[in-house]
Amino acid sequence: MNYLIKAPEGAWGGEVFLPASKSISNRVLILNALSYSPYDIQNLSDCDDTEVLVKALNSNERDFDIKAAGTAMRFLTAFLSKIVGEWTITGTERMKNRPIKILVDALNSVGAHIEYIEKEGFPPLRILGSALQGGEISLAGNVSSQYISALLMVAPLMEKGLTLHLEGNIISRPYINLTLQLMAQYGVKAEWTGSTIRVLPQTYTPLPFTVESDWSAASYWYEMMACSRVAQLDLKGLFKHSFQGDAIGARLFSDLGVGTRYTPNGVSLYHNGNSLKKLVYNFVDEPDLAQTFVAVCILLGIPFYFTGLQSLKIKETDRIEALKAECRKLGYVLEDKKNSILEWKGMLCEAEQDPQIDTYEDHRMAMAFAPFALLRPEGIKIRDVEVVSKSYPHFWDDLKKVGFQLTEF
User: Which CATH architecture has domain 22-199?
Assistant: First the structure.
């Protein structure tokens, strides 16, 4: 399905009930299972990534298709490696081309038995679940934090526990910290000193849990607020003291004209009058915000220099190349360097007469480009809009509720 999105005429806004955090939901699902918890998780995300994980954890099947859910692929690989039995995990064609060798090698080195069914280093996988010995593992610190989180969550149930040495530059620290904080809530202590994380053998303690709303999802509404002086928005379900790394978005947007007031039920956004001549930022800890800030800087005419984007190459799509291609359709020329830097110096090119934004099976491409409707009288056309179901299934419904017009084409 494809949408032509047009912005409201005049003032717009209202209350937006954000989806629950996918990052927290998926981690808590694993921790809930590992603790044999009798409690149902409250405010669990209803996104695709979480639903496939719920289905897998509640299933009596031995063969799992997690579709395009990268988090589910990585977390389940580690989880099933310690559950006695024979399991297989597969996914979409894109998933079959997303590397998983680093995680598989790490798990096999501590006693797992995981094999590749098709292509070496990539899903689908065959897992012969058994007790894991544990021990010491060294990983490059710049690998996906989901590999590290997957290992950490099963670490306390390894016979020797796990000592994880992260070598070189450690990216996505907030996501690793999120995992450790949630593990602590379930009664497991970890020690993170320098570049080494140590988890001794322990037992998880079940507890009732309510999931916070998603700060990554909030970023698209901040983007819209930054691009419209006649908007009024209240975002529900966010916590001021959040474990989510993407909560840093509130501070970043304060430099782009959007202030944040914290309320008992979430946040209220307002225009603070701030502006920048150029935004320079290292997104190594918050890669999921990169598309939002590329889009908002272009919309506001603010040149940018973004570093720390190396993990964008292995997301749902190669997000660096996708951003370059789609921005060029709209008349903006982005430059990339070293597979980890994206820059816009204000360079323009001739835009396509009838640009249609491709989403590349990537939910964040769709949501980051939707706010272009605010500064384009003709609106913005986005293809395959259903991809938002991966993290924010009711995003388009929320846009309609605050006054946007969506028409299929």
Answer: Alpha-beta prism (3.65)
